[in-house]
Structures are given as C-alpha cells and as structure tokens.
C-alpha cells in the first residue's frame, strides 16, 4: 500500500493542486490498515476535517481512483470497498469472512490471457481479476467450532 509520501508525489507528479482538503484526505487514507467503505471514509474525513463536504469527498475519491491512489474492490455480496492502492500491475485475494484483502504481486494470468487477447485481435488491453475465498485463519476458526 502506498504511504502518505507516495500518495503525495503521485498527486504532485500528476500536476494536481495539493489543497489542504486533499492533504487531509490522504492523511485519513493512511490511517486505514485494510479495506473500508465510502461511508467509513466519509466519517473519518469529517472527524479530521469537518469542512469537507460530500461533493468534495466524492470528487476526491474519483481523482484518487483515477490516479491509482485508491482501488475499488468488487465484492460478491455487492458491498464494494476501497483500499489504498499499490504500485504496478497486481491482483487481489479477498476473504469473504473477515474481509481481509491481500495483494498478489505477480500476475498469474498473463500468459493465458495473452493467448486469448491475440486470438480476439485486441491491443492495449487491461484486465481486472479478483479472487474471493476464505482465508486460512478464518478457516481454522470455522474448524474449531465443529
Ligand atoms: Zn491493490
Ligand atoms: Zn478471513
Ligand atoms: Zn494480471
């Protein structure tokens, strides 16, 4: 996950103004250890900086998503969540029980996808693949109950 400094330089390099509100929002992001909802973000943002309105917050979320500072994770249960982004092409594996999200750094799908893409005659493609399951510690907890 990006650190505060890294998020700052992404905005800086993109030529975006580092307004006080944007800086506060980056500080809020740094306090999240894992995934969070838009509502979680809004609550924490308002605690830190009551002057940030809803419209400003959602515009900032759009900007952060566009710049890769934030990543939106689609969940099977329909409750999409956000996490602070990380560098480079990667995928996520998500625990359905505790909601933990881990980065998978190497792309395990590259080779197979390349064949499909070539066959379809596409170029400049992107892909998003998320894996959802039960993590080891949740599985152990589940076994303990039986
Ligand atoms: Zn990620
Ligand atoms: Zn879990
Ligand atoms: Zn990939």
TrEMBL record:
CDD domains in the record: Fur_like (cd07153)
Any GO BP: regulation of secondary metabolite biosynthetic process
Keyword Transcription regulation attached: yes
InterPro entries named among the record's database cross-references: FUR, Fur_C, WH-like_DNA-bd_sf, WH_DNA-bd_sf
Taxonomy, superkingdom: Bacteria
GO molecular function: DNA-binding transcription factor activity; transcription cis-regulatory region binding; zinc ion binding
Residues holding Zn(2+): 95, 98, 135, 138
Cofactor: Mn(2+); Fe(2+); Zn(2+)
Positions contributing to Fe cation binding: 89, 110, 127
Annotated protein name in UniProt: Fur family transcriptional regulator
Organism of this sequence: Leptospirillum ferriphilum YSK
């Amino acid at each position: 996950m990006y650190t505060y400094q890294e998020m700052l330089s992404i905005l800086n390099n993109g030529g975006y103004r580092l307004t006080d509100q944007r800086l506060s929002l980056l500080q809020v992001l740094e306090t999240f250890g894992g995934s969070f909802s838009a509502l979680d973000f809004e609550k924490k943002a308002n605690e830190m900086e009551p002057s940030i309105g809803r419209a400003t917050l959602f515009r900032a979320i759009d900007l952060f998503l566009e710049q890769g500072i934030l990543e939106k994770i689609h969940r099977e249960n329909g409750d999409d969540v956000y996490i602070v982004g990380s560098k480079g092409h990667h995928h996520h594996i998500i625990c359905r029980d505790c909601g933990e999200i881990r980065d998978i750094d190497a792309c395990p799908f590259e080779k197979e996808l390349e064949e499909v893409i070539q066959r379809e005659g596409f170029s400049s493609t992107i892909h998003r693949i998320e894996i959802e399951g039960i993590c080891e510690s949740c599985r152990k907890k589940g076994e303990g109950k039986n």
